[in-house]
Amino acid sequence: MNPASEQFDAVIIGAGFSGLYMLHRLRNLGLRCRVYETGDGVGGTWYWNRYPGARCDSESYFYCYSFSDEILQEWAWTERFPSQQEIRRYLEFVAERLDLWRDIQLGTRVSSATYDDEARRWCVETSTGDTVSARYVVTAIGAISAANVPSIRGLETFAGRWYHTGQWPHEGVDLSGLRVGVIGTGSTGVQLIPVVAEQAAELTVFQRTPNFSMPARNRPLDPAVMTEIKANYSDVWDRVRRHPGGMPLDLPTQRFDEVDEQEARRRYESAWAHGGVMVLQQFSDLMTDERSNEFCADFFRQKIRSIVNDPVTAEKLVPKGYPIAAKRPVLDTDYFETFNKPHVRLVDINDTPIDAITPTGVRAGGTVHELDVIVFATGFDAFTGSFLRIDITGRGGVRLADKWKDGPTAYLGLGIAGFPNLLTVNGPCNPAVLTNVPATIEHDVEWIADCIEYAEQRGIKAIEPTEEAEREWVRYTAELVDGTLYMKANSWWLGANIPGKPRVFMAFVGGLNRFRKRCAEIAEAGYEGFRLTT
Ligand code: NA7
């Protein structure tokens, strides 16, 4: 290891929603900070995911920071669901507004972080050859940022071009007149496919699991509506704080069996017409009662059959065999309608598995689908992927990769036993990915900043979860999800999308409101479950 060229109080890894706010908070404590960011700009997820149609599934007016009244009042969203470009512009605006740029080093990937027990400092090495030292390291690396390109035999022989949606070329890709294949029909594929269909001469979609997708009904935001929202922001954030998903929406108060089927259908129809995730917020027992879930799932199936003209294609698109919302809910704009276009074809790879990629296309079930471009909308190695591509070594030379070989463990998703002064925004066993993510990010960043302030004020040199507290939190996280319908689907929440990955549900399903309360109690009790070394 090279000697450290610079000493920081804190190194923050990543300059997306989490890293930007973390920098602001830690600088306000008077700490000397450096943010390292792989990209050549800020934005994180919203810097990288530039595929056609990339858009957020949370409504813009609450998919943002709430901590600054000035920022809330100065920024005006223009669409109900913000596009990737608009969110990226927003984050650049925040970086400018808070004068963050001067402490962010772009184009620099953190390659390793090693804890020195004696010095009680982290040694951080980067892809640009820097070695620096810091008392704290905060990971702000996102739970879904490590792209998953499946290893399919023959990819290297493909004569055309291929892209993963999370690494989309910044200059864009002109698909007009080309034969395009898309592999994957998750949130990304479902957003991308209708837009690609507008450009491509032929589009072939390779589907492994059909998805329950609901219409977003995106539209421009009337400036008058935005003005009204701005006047009511304090109420919006009160509601966000009370909601398990961190959204200012009304919670369902009734169980499915409290109304008759006609009334249930009427509610689903009305929510479907409204657009967005409200359609999954009709009954309180959607994820705990199979009958409730099946009624909702069947409502979606009927919608798909009514939209798609060809009954064979429709049947392939109809999700079966897993509960609705047990995989990440998906919003779309004309996804199912796209399959009515004559140049769009659906290949169910359960019937005709992909054998190989050949120089001219994708061979599935013995048939070569001739392609100029292959788009991998195949998702991410979630939660652990973004951590494990950094070589992280904690106390006593223990590597995080070894500690997590049977699945990730963490306390609150904010710290990891054996890794002192490593604080993790939205780490494993945290509710983030099941919520409106910026709301959980704000919570985590504020909690971490308060924790560091507490340590600084008391001369605490190292703060680290105890093994026991971590074990108990992991057990509690597992207990909450056990018996729910979340366990009945092959989701990326469970690591099921990555061959060989341990099947562990990696998120806290107890809700952001409950999580927030527990974290506050832990802090008030003097950081219960953490070992504090003076
Ligand atoms: P997702 O939701 O993980 O979707 C990936 C899609 O790719 C999904 O349809 C997968 O099928 C499919 N997939 C993955 N691996 C393969 C292989 N090997 N062969 C064929 N098909 C495959 O990722 P997204 O990018 O859509 O969304 C990620 C998150 O970003 C999203 O949840 C939001 O939070 C934002 P599967 O369903 O696993 O059978």
List keywords for this structure.
alpha/beta, 8-stranded mixed sheet, globular, 534 residues, 5-stranded parallel sheet, single chain, 17% strand, binds ligand NA7
Write the layout of secondary structure elements.
Layout: E1 6-13, H1 17-28, E2 33-36, H2 45-48, H3 69-74, H4 84-97, E3 104-105, E4 110-116, E5 121-126, E6 131-139, E7 161-164, E8 179-183, H5 187-199, E9 202-207, E10 213-215, H6 223-231, H7 233-242, H8 261-274, H9 290-307, H10 311-317, E11 330-332, H11 335-338, E12 344-348, E13 354-358, E14 361-364, E15 367-370, E16 373-376, H12 384-388, E17 391-393, H13 400-403, E18 422-424, H14 437-457, E19 462-465, H15 467-481, H16 512-524, E20 530-533
Parallel strand pairs: 1-2, 1-6, 2-3, 4-17, 6-18, 7-16, 8-9, 8-16, 9-12, 10-11
Antiparallel strand pairs: 4-5, 5-6, 13-14, 14-15, 19-20
Ligand NA7 binds near residues 185, 187, 349 and 378.
- What's the total number of strands? 20
| Bound compounds | ligand NA7
Q: Radius of gyration, Cα only, in angstroms?
A: 23 Å
Multimer state: single chain
Can you walk me through this structure?
The mean pLDDT is 97. The protein has helices spanning 17-28, 45-48, 69-74, 84-97, 187-199, 223-231, 233-242, 261-274, 290-307, 311-317, 335-338, 384-388, 400-403, 437-457, 467-481, 512-524; strands at 6-13, 33-36, 104-105, 110-116, 121-126, 131-139, 161-164, 179-183, 202-207, 213-215, 330-332, 344-348, 354-358, 361-364, 367-370, 373-376, 391-393, 422-424, 462-465, 530-533. Helix 1 packs parallel to helix 14 (437-457). Strands 1, 2, 3, 4, 5, 6, 17 and 18 form an 8-stranded mixed beta sheet that branches. A 5-stranded parallel beta sheet has the order 7-16-8-9-12, covered by helices on one side. The radius of gyration is 23 Å and the shape is globular. It is α/β, with parallel strands linked by helices and 534 residues long. Ligand NA7 binds at residues 144, 150, 183-189, 208-209, 328, 349, 377-380, 490, 492, 497.
